Amino acid sequence: MAYTRTQRARRTTRKRAARANGPDTAGIRAPILTLATLASLTLAWFMLPWAPLMCAAAAGTRAAARPAQLTGQDPWKRPAPATPAQRRADRAYRLRRSWYTHLSARLDPHGPQPCLYMGLGALTAIPVQTRWGAWAALAQMIGLVLLLAARPTPTVDGPVQCGPRPVTWARNRIPWITGATMLGLTAGAIIWTLGGSAWWTPALTLTAAPAPMWPAWRASRRQYKADKDMTARLNRWLTADGRPATDRPPARLDSTTSGAHGERTCRLTVPSAPAWTDKTVRDTLRAASARDGYDVGFVLCGADMMHVMLAVTPLDAPAPADILADKTALEAWCAVETARLCNNYNATGGRPRLTQVGTRDGKPACWIMRMDGGSADSDWDMIRRDWLRGSQAGQLGDWGCLCGLTMSVDPGLDHAWVFAADTGTDGIVFDEDKAKTGHTAAFSTMTDGNTPAYLALIEQERADMAVWDEALNGTKLEAPMQIIYDRRTGADRLTSRDGRWALECTPCSIPTKGGHSAADYMKTDLRAAFGDSTVADVIGLRNRGKWFTRYMQLVQTVPANNPAAPTRLADLSGDGPAERLMAQVIISRAIAGTLKHAAYVDAPRQCARDTSWTMWRAEIQLTGGDTAMDARRAAPRIATLLGADTTLWEIREAGMIILWAGNRPPDAPEKWRRGTDRDTVLRLRFDEAWAATGLTAPDGRTVATAHIGDDTGPLTRLEFTLPAGIDPAMCDARLDRFAAAAGYGYTRPTGAAAGRYAILAAATNPLPDRIGLDGRTAMSGDRRLAFAVRDDGTTVLFDPADDPHLLASGTTGSGKSSVSVTLIVQALRAGWQVLATDPEKGANDLKPLAPHMSAFDPSLEGCYAIFQWAHREMRRRVALIDEHGGGDWAMLPDPVRPPRLLVFCDEFNSLLQKDKTKISNENNDPDLANEETMRTWRNGLKSSIGMWVSALLTQGRSAGITVLLGAQALKAGDLELLPNAGTAKTMLARVFLGSGDASGNVSGANVKETNRLHRQATRCGGMPKGRGVYERLGRGVDMVQCLYPGQGDELERWGPFPQPQRIDLSPFMPAPPELTGLAEPDMTGSESVETVQVDAAGEEWTL
């Protein structure tokens, strides 16, 4: 079956092609209607239904019509008549084919035509009904209705066609229609009652009812005539040059209106509306229309993409007043000018919608124009900027320059005010009720009811916008979208207190195009464009605690160039509105001129109580990714641009800072408006001191002052909050630089809570140069021994319970011996058992106290014996502790508990270094052999002593044994020579006197702080004798001044001392080495002991 259908379709196609290409059948088609007409007249003579015959004849005519053989082509390469004969044949064909084309439209019940057709059909059916009955009459009526509805409509030559406008029932004509209907009904009823046919009633009723619509039919006819004339003209223009304006021609033309001076507007049905607004289409038609003396333009009809408006205007424009007086003419000129400017600026325009709002001499003189459709309708800012540049260059000139019109774009950016360019708005009488619909309340409410003032303000904005365009020329920024004149603050409210200068502040809105914000405009210097103003700066605009991003404020001096206006914060005193605004401008300009992006500056607050000085506080919100760190780095340049003697920064958030700037702030509280401001500035001075050290967190924050208070003695306690990313060690490393920036000569860290950092500070070093032991001597049974004072005046106590052993080291002449003498004096007074030795220099400082000690031997052998005895004593005590239940020395019962034992060894560093020099004895000299033997023997003694010292350091604490070691300044790694040095070192508290290298003399963790204290002391007058640092186990270091106990016989005044328990060291002395030859072994020591006479005056220890 599929094959059968395919063959049938092919046969049908061949038949249709044969008919289309067959011989001309005009001779057959012409007699059809003629014969039908004659037959119909015959039927009518006999009162028979003739209308159905005519309907059939019309249908046959349509079916028999064949297209003419056209040998020409139109611009779109479609067949077209090439000769007059072909044109007549083509018209005849189109006329015959138009039968029944508009049948459904003419029978639409929304219009009066069906009613009229039925009335006429009923009238012609009355004779038929009288003679042949109702059925024949009904056939006649239906046939006539169809014949009238199917009648052909003449067409025009060309691709564009038009047709009559359909007429529909009008609501405002209902009373007339009702009256006519009742009149026809009454007349039909009267005829019926007088013996006439009953068909008279519906016939007259249906015929009379549409009669009131006769004016609408006449208007439709006039419109059709105008459309036909415009269609013929457009077809002539489209085909004049033989080249198509677009890829497809318009299909239909309608809604033609005519102006008083030859202007015309109409609507075209097109395949694609935007394509018809292209410049090439207009230029193609203008070439043909110009020969007839017309210009053309195409604009869109709203959002309808199937229709465009065609406007035609004469090339010789009439007077602007005459154009304004005729709405159709004005609409045509507005459309043509809009199309011209859209083509120049690659935009699409919409149909103008006009509202008359003003007259001059009784004639319309001002209109509001809105645009219906097109890209220009949504970009009135472009219209204001590009279409109204003041150019009169013909086709490239401003909107309206070809016809003498102009327009002012309303700030609402949705319509424009159109009037004559030469006379402007002078003399125009406005209808305020209509004109107020064109007022933009957001632009100005002060001009409500005064349209001339409103339009004058628009012109002022236009002039101001021109200045903005000049100022922003060369940048990527555009002029403000709107200048908000209603919120302008004039010079009458922003005059300085001395009356020498004034400001004017005008808010503006920022265009959305480009995505710019107020901060972008702040970076631009506008002073030159605004009359070389002293001040012409953009600042931000606040919005309930936030900042508008689409609004800004322009601040200008009045007059523009006023040398009396201050431009430095240091010169700006007082607290009036003008002064506050000027301070805001100066700060904003300084930030914008320094950082990568401008910043929003809140209204500053004056902190000074009077005008003798100034201090401004302003909150600043950074933008564009700038951080407080960036502001910190640029602080010196910002201070220069501010013209301030003092600039302090307070960081609230990463992008929020508070600036304090002005003169040098006074200390007197009565000079400040608020006491809290004075306290804040004092804290910020310390914050700036930290910032000067370069100590800032990644977000720009620096160490913030949390508390300032008095401490013990002359010290001030400063406590700081540490931001994330900064720890106390970083503060320690920069403490010296902080002290110098803050004006302190002495600082040291002290304890603080987590997240905080605290120091004690003083203008100079608070330690005395000398201080005696008076008033700090120990009493019998004391465990803690005083030996120095701190910077706060408190006494430093050596407590074996916390620090079991002590190393006192220092450079020559630093007074380190005073530490040992003081502690031994204190230990003797407390009843401690004391052993002392000095294997290097004889311990001359301790000889006056030797009678009060349990053992004193200043030799290497004596040192060996003392530490051997102490080691055995430690083992004995440990065993005693075990016998009494364990624990430590302090838990022993009083009757059996031995006294505390202090073992002192001076010049301990000599025991750490062994003699590694090997003597060459090639001749077997006995003296050289004996010297080598003695060297080996002394090295062995030092090894044994080191072993016992290490054991005492690590185990003596629980046995009540304390080791006090004196040494010259050690080097890093010296204590590593001890056996089990890792543990032994951790049991030593340290006292390091003088200002040598701290490495080896204090633990590694405190080397940096010790060196800092030494540098600080050097800047504050140096290190007097007895000055040093004290380090407790696992803690920091304190600068101390050691107590001076005196020397020689002066030491006896600290007595009486308890009677000592003497110790016999002979059993613990080392056996002498075996020597060869005649050499006598020196059993008194490895080195001779020389008695040194101490010169007290030379030591400068006089109190």
TrEMBL record:
| Ranges of Basic residues composition bias in the record | 7-18
Q: Tell me the Gene3D superfamilies matching this sequence.
A: P-loop containing nucleotide triphosphate hydrolases
Q: Which domain of life is it from?
A: Bacteria
A GO molecular function annotation here is: DNA binding
Which spans are transmembrane here? 132-150, 174-192
Per the UniProt entry, what are the Gene Ontology biological process annotations, in alphabetical order? cell division
Looking at the record, which segments are called Disordered?
A: 1-23, 66-88, 240-264
**FtsK domain location, by residue?**
793-1002
What residues bind ATP, as annotated?
Answer: G810, T811, T812, G813, S814, G815, K816, S817
Tell me if Membrane is a UniProt keyword of this record.
yes
Q: Which InterPro entries match?
A: FtsK_dom, P-loop_NTPase
What UniProt keywords apply to this chain's record, in alphabetical order? ATP-binding, Cell cycle, Cell division, Membrane, Nucleotide-binding, Transmembrane, Transmembrane helix
* Keyword Ligase included in the entry's annotation: no
Protein name in the entry: Cell division protein FtsK
What is the originating organism of this protein?
A: Bifidobacterium castoris
